[in-house]
């Protein structure tokens, strides 16, 4: 489906120059003793896709909820589409579209009914709301399913409908909270394609949170990595990945990997070595020219190598270097496109209570 999304039915408010789409300064949100967001400065340019990447409990949803005026900041300031979230929340809401992590869709309603209702809620006249619902329905390509109750939709269909519902009033800035968590790989790819089209065809600014490295890597122009309520790194995906070296050699050993650090101390071409459990991450400028020297140095120290991998860095390597943990594993636990409530978070063992 590559139908153009027409915008004539709603006033176009997009401005291409002027202030940032999102700007925050020292944004903080506390819940009692818990500091969910610990002082965040964001500058998202108009027309940009910004990926907010971090593990469960990092503070992604809380940040997004503040920007969408659903939760008040404890301190700090934020402007969205040029409007102050504290002084003018109603104006912010008119300029944004929001798809939350838990889409609250009425199972008895049909897709078309939902889209029309959403249009009416945003004050579109009845005929315009109908036309807009048809346009969006065609745009998301759910076909005949749009006339059926949402209760029978798959997880992927619900997410796409929820995405379309966030677009009825042609928002300037679109907020997506973990848009593909719990989806199977094919539904995920469909959502990615839709997000990309919104950005390239309509120039929409998109702020999305994710715990999927690949999602941030594929979709985002710029990525902010968040951990413990703070942004620990920010840049384009390639800048971030380059920061950990051109090539990585990953060595898995029997027992602790800490002896690997000393063993590779003098090996030419090795930029740095980090040990985490039984795994050592060796950053190099040119992995294939260094790998045999690494193997020799390890065998000289009688370090038993179980597995040796040469690869280019991922955003997870960036996260590991900055925080000492990986984000990746929980992402693969949730790959089921279930019909019921999304399973996000329930299998995660890193839920933080700070
Ligand atoms: N309504 C709330 N009441 C108490 N604690 C909360 C609330 N919302 C979030 N938190 C806590 O704030 C932290 C960040 O949560 P959240 O923003 O949901 O993270 P993420 O979306 O990155 O998983 C977590 O420790 C979470 O338990
Ligand atoms: Mg969240």
Describe this structure in words.
This protein has 354 residues and is of the alpha/beta class. It folds into two domains: 22-235, Rossmann fold; 245-312, Alpha-Beta Plaits, CATH 3.30.70. The chain is 33% helix and 25% strand. The strands form three sheets. Strands 6-7-8-3-9-10 form a six-stranded mixed beta sheet, with helices on both faces. A four-stranded antiparallel beta sheet has the order 2-1-4-5, covered by helices on one side. A four-stranded antiparallel beta sheet has the order 12-13-11-14. Magnesium ion is lined by residues 60-61, 101, 177-178.
Task: Offer a quick outline of the entry.
By secondary structure, the protein is of the alpha/beta class. The chain has twelve helices and 14 strands. The protein folds into two domains: 22-235, P-loop containing nucleotide triphosphate hydrolases (Rossmann fold), CATH 3.40.50.300; 245-312, Alpha-Beta Plaits, CATH 3.30.70.100.
List the helices and strands and how they pair.
Elements: E1 22-31, E2 34-44, E3 49-53, H1 60-67, E4 75-80, E5 83-84, H2 89-95, E6 96-99, H3 111-121, H4 126-140, H5 155-165, E7 173-177, H6 185-202, E8 205-210, H7 213-219, E9 222-227, E10 230-235, H8 237-242, E11 247-253, H9 258-263, E12 270-276, E13 279-284, H10 287-300, E14 305-311, H11 315-323, H12 329-333
Parallel strand pairs: 3-8, 3-9, 6-7, 7-8
Antiparallel strand pairs: 1-2, 1-4, 4-5, 9-10, 11-13, 11-14, 12-13
Helix pairs in contact: 3-4, 4-5
The structure holds adenosine-5'-diphosphate and magnesium ion.
Adenosine-5'-diphosphate (ADP) is lined by residues 31, 34, 36, 54, 56-62, 352-354.
């Amino acid at each position: 489906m590559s139908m153009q999304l027409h915008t004539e039915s709603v006033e176009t408010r997009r401005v291409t120059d002027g202030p940032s789409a999102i700007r925050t300064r020292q944004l903080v949100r506390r819940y009692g003793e818990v500091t969910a967001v610990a002082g965040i400065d964001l500058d998202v340019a108009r027309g940009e896709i910004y990926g907010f990447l971090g593990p469960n409990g990092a503070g992604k949803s809380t940040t997004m909820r503040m920007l969408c005026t659903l939760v008040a900041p404890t301190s700090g300031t934020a402007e969205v589409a040029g409007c102050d979230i504290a002084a003018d929340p109603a104006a912010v809401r008119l300029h944004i579209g929001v798809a939350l992590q838990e889409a609250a869709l009425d199972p008895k309603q049909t897709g078309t009914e939902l889209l029309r209702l959403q249009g009416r809620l945003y004050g579109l006249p009845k005929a315009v709301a109908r036309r807009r619902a048809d346009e969006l329905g065609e745009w998301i390509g759910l076909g005949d399913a749009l006339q059926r109750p949402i209760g029978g939709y798959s997880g992927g269909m619900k997410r796409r409908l929820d995405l379309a519902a966030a677009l009825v009033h042609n928002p300037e800035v679109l907020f997506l909270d973990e848009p593909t968590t719990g989806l199977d790989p094919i539904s995920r790819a469909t959502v990615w394609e839709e997000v990309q089209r919104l950005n390239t065809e309509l120039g929409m600014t998109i702020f999305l949170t994710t715990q999927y490295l690949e999602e941030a890597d594929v979709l985002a122009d710029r990525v902010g990595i968040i951990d413990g309520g703070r942004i620990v790194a920010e840049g384009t995906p390639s800048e971030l990945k380059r920061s950990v070296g051109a090539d990585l050699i990953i060595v898995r050993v029997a027992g602790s990997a800490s002896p690997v650090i000393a063993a590779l101390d003098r090996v030419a071409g090795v930029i740095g070595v980090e040990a985490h459990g039984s795994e050592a991450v060796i950053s190099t400028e040119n992995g294939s020219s260094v790998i045999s020297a690494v193997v020799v140095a390890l065998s000289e120290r009688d370090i038993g190598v179980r597995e040796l991998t040469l690869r280019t860095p991922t955003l997870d390597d960036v996260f590991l270097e900055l925080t000492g943990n990986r984000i990746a594993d929980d992402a693969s636990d949730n790959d089921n496109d279930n019909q019921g409530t999304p399973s996000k978070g329930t299998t995660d063992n890193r839920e933080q209570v700070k």
